[in-house]
Amino acid sequence: MGGLAFLVAWHKRAAIESCLSNAKVPVYAVGSADYTQAIKPFNYRVTFNPAAYAVPATVEHVQAAVKCGADNKIQVTAKSGGHSYASHGLGGEDGHLIVDMKNFKDVKVDIAAQMAVIGTGGRLGDVATALYNQGKQAISHGTCPGVGVGGLTLHGGYGLISRSKGLTLDNLLEATVVLANSSVVTASATQNPDLFWALRGAGAAFGIVTNFKFKTFTAPENNLVFQYFISPNSASQLAAILTAIQDFTRNAQPPELNMRLFLSAFTTFSGVYYGSRADFDKVMNPLLTNMGIGGGFAQVTQNSWLNTLTSFSNGPLQQATPYDTHETFFSKSLMPSYLSPAAIDALSQYWYNNARNNQRSWYLLFDSHGGNSSAISEVPADSTSYAHRNATFKMQFYDRVNSGNYDSTWMPFLNGWVKAITDKMPEEKFGMYINYADTSLSKEEAHEKYWLGNYKRLVAIKERVDPGKVFEGPQIVGS
Ligand SMILES: Cc1cc2nc3c(=O)[nH]c(=O)nc-3n(C[C@H](O)[C@H](O)[C@H](O)COP(=O)(O)OP(=O)(O)OC[C@H]3O[C@@H](n4cnc5c(N)ncnc54)[C@H](O)[C@@H]3O)c2cc1C
């Protein structure tokens, strides 16, 4: 940083610190042990230095923090679980005022109404446990228990009951939001419906949500968790497996079946079936035959709801404080409506010729997302700003190192894999999932890929509710 830029940054930091202090907003002082811990991102590859770090305990504190940011022309960023792949919860760039929602983690169930009010700072494992402990309730959400319910919900929220119950944002009834002008409003289907539409897919750009009201469902028990261990040994074998899964997901996958193919050094086909073993076999056996893995090694076990979640959580549901789990990686996504035979072939060739030789800890995850009977695809495309209703798969490309830094010269590995696929389908508008934020996208690419045809309407709403761009970031709406 040059001398003048340093001086400007120093003055801004002093001004925001003094404003927060006068307004009695709790903070982690820059340089303190709490601050140093709190700015550790989930993805160690992408680190930032905020201008100030607020830790509000009340909605009034959030309002005061937003006002301090706006008055001092410092961009304001909400952070919930801090799991953004691009560290968007730390601003996605240096110099933001971070508003950490960690104190907003109450979960209150209204069992008669099957509704729950959930603070946005909670982590999924804790939220799921609290919902279950209050009348065995549940919502649809992602698999990693450390992810924040705030970022997950405001940009999607896919997990192993989403094909049955919809995305997390599909179950949202209401949100309490602090806007850029520091007022507090409710967003719902009947109050501020445009804002409610924008929050469900692009939330970070529109305000700080302090709590959500969700509709809940009674947690299903006796769920069949399945995992098949498979080892494709040629590009054509992988292509056959993917073709079979795609055909099945689009045309024959029942809503009670949720599944994913995890392609890696060890490949698994896994998921959850919410039904009986006899029905599961009836549904699954023809698919396994078409995939050519009828005789593969399998595990199928019956699980309670919390054990079902734990089966996919890589650890206990309840999360330690302070949260201190991190990885170092680069990631991309694709949300294709369909993969043509040529695209599947290119994907499989790339796997055979490039990925298999990569010694880092990479994977490509295919989540069955859409298709004829998916609860996600049944939601009308224009009813939320989430733009991927017709995506058959949610594909996540992930390349990680288990120690040391991730060298930027490795990024072409995943960029090349995505290009190999998209080059074969020039007519397809491939969407990408902002919850798997991709740091290699320019802001224009990010806007187009994350929000497709919804972007224009989002910008119009942004201009109305945040004309001064108090909530900014390198990839969010209006940036
Ligand atoms: C290990 C891991 C597993 C994952 N598994 C899944 C999965 O199974 N399914 C899935 O769909 N996704 C999954 N994700 C992606 C995850 O949903 C996103 O990274 C999500 O945005 C993280 O939310 P967060 O609150 O933890 O992150 P943060 O970094 O805190 O926030 C992410 C974004 O949301 C904004 N934001 C957060 N809280 C608020 C708020 N209260 N008001 C306004 N804006 C806010 C932030 O400003 C930022 O732009 C996973 C991520 C990781 C790292």
Automatic annotation (TrEMBL):
PROSITE patterns: FAD_PCMH. InterPro entries: BBE, FAD-bd_PCMH, FAD-bd_PCMH-like_sf, FAD-bd_PCMH_sub2, FAD-linked_Oxidoreductase, Oxid_FAD_bind_N. GO terms for molecular function: FAD binding; oxidoreductase activity. Its cofactor is FAD. Residues 46-219 form the FAD-binding PCMH-type domain. Gene3D superfamilies: 3.30.465.10, 3.40.462.20. The keyword Oxidoreductase applies. Keywords: FAD, Flavoprotein, Oxidoreductase. It holds the Pfam family BBE. PANTHER family: BINDING OXIDOREDUCTASE, PUTATIVE (AFU_ORTHOLOGUE AFUA_1G17690)-RELATED, FAD-BINDING PCMH-TYPE DOMAIN-CONTAINING PROTEIN. Belongs to the oxygen-dependent FAD-linked oxidoreductase family. This is Glucooligosaccharide oxidase. The lineage of its organism: Eukaryota, Fungi, Dikarya, Ascomycota, Pezizomycotina.
